[in-house]
Hints:
By secondary structure, the protein is of the alpha/beta class. The protein is 33% helix and 20% strand. It has 14 helices and 23 strands. The strands form 7 sheets. It has a 6-stranded parallel beta sheet with strand order 2-1-3-4-5-6, with helices on both faces. Strands 18-19-20-22-21 form a 5-stranded mixed β-barrel. Strands 7-10-13 form a 3-stranded parallel beta sheet. A hairpin with a 5-residue loop joins strand 18 and strand 19. Bound molecules: S-adenosyl-L-homocysteine (SAH), iron/sulfur cluster and FE3-S4 cluster (F3S). S-adenosyl-L-homocysteine (SAH) binds next to strand 16.
Amino acid sequence: MTSRPETEQETAQSAVCAIEEKTEAKAGATRKVFVRTYGCQMNVYDSERMTDVLAPEGYQATDDLEDADLVILNTCHIREKAAEKVYSELGRIRKVKEQRAKSGKDMMVGVAGCVAQAEGEEISRRAPIVDLVVGPQSYHQLPSLLNRARQGAKVVETEFDIDAKFDHLSERAERPVQKRAPAAFLTVQEGCDKFCTFCVVPYTRGAEVSRPVAQIVTEAERMASSGVREVTLLGQNVNAYHGQGPDGATWGLGRLLRRLSEIDGLDRLRYTTSHPRDMDDDLIEAHRDLKSLMPYLHLPVQSGSDKILKSMNRRHTRDDYFRLIDRIRGAVPDIALSGDFIVGFPGETDRDFEDTMDLIRRVGYGSAFSFKYSQRPGTPGATMDDQVPEAVKSARLAELQALVSEQQKAFNASRLGMHCDVLLEKKGRNAGQLVGKSPWLQPVQLDAPENLVGTIQAVEIVQIGSNSLFGRLIEGQDETDFSGAIPAPAAQAG
Length: 494
Ligand code: SAH
Ligand code: SF4
Ligand code: F3S
């Protein structure tokens, strides 16, 4: 949500073990798995599915590293610092493993995710405590890979077979319903064919693959019946979704969202991350038509300079982006826009950077993520001339983040006095408080009894904090009375 003071975007630091899991432990064989998730939301989803796959093997999730028979680091490779963090975490885990060994207890260590895919065997060479390296497309094979590792082999599995992954993972989901958090992720598309010149994702996640509509609907229905009220559809290019529909035709994201909006109990839909090139009319119309599609859109542009956009291979100009924003705001005037920005891409001059600042001023964001360009080995950007000095990148990042922060404050302040629906997700910091999300993805804190967790309530926004809003329950008001917020007559039709 927020622009960060540093270059890092850590959307998923929390260990997945925090998710309440009821496992079907084999009699007498309860083992503990600790999963730490780095990187994007897709890793959060994958971590949850890994614990699903391990549950029938007798594994229960734990958030206590020292108690773990199996540790899995689900890693991110997007920037240099992300991978380095994994190696320093492995150093800490080695000490815990040695400690456990003293009391005769074993600990297996697995590295999953994008670093696993990119570095493969190199990981166990650099960190010999690692027993298993598994790429993002092979999680369905975890039980058999663990068996091999238990027999003493150093296992490295980095095949690309996304279809097999989803076929198998969706079977696993047919286990009895579990209690889930009220807001959850669902991957509908994985991989990327765009090859932006700064980015490792096409190499770590492979080619773009969309899951069939029926498989997604089944999974979403199961989530709704286990208490999920809000689903965020995930994909590296989620709006490039082109899955096979039950009618044999290829469905786009707009049509998929329409179908999902019919599921009982799924009151809120979101999706991320979108590419400007793939934002078609049907999807924009879905925003206009669907009450359950929340008025928030993460639409990264990366730069406001045509020269840099071209060199990044983004395949659109700044004017294309402005026209697109106009179309989106034509459909949903009050939508909260978010984006990603990279400063200091090779060849970026003061003038190019000023174009980015100008774009931000003209668009007006509700929030944004921003990063210093990080050279990724194997990507074209890494070997381009005119790499930008670190100090220049830092200065530009600070300037950009100050502007975004100002815009974010103004957007948040514009909610003061509004009535809107809030999905209450968990207990707040203080006793008697709950925290939820506004339609625009802002955290909202309010006084409310704990039994309201998992419900959507009508709330008046009474105060604005630096990163969150403060609200008050509107007594006797049913959530379904609001489509988005009032007063905001043009906000969300339907
Ligand atoms: N698929 C999404 C982005 C995925 S990566 C899209 O197309 O927009 C998330 C963000 O990380 C990117 O939007 C970009 O801003 C940032 N990023 C990716 N590679 C980077 C690099 N080499 N250096 C700095 N930031 C990077
Ligand atoms: Fe990376 Fe570009 Fe693909 Fe996004 S569209 S995942 S930034 S290559
Ligand atoms: Fe990171 Fe891989 Fe996601 S590199 S951002 S975990 S797709």
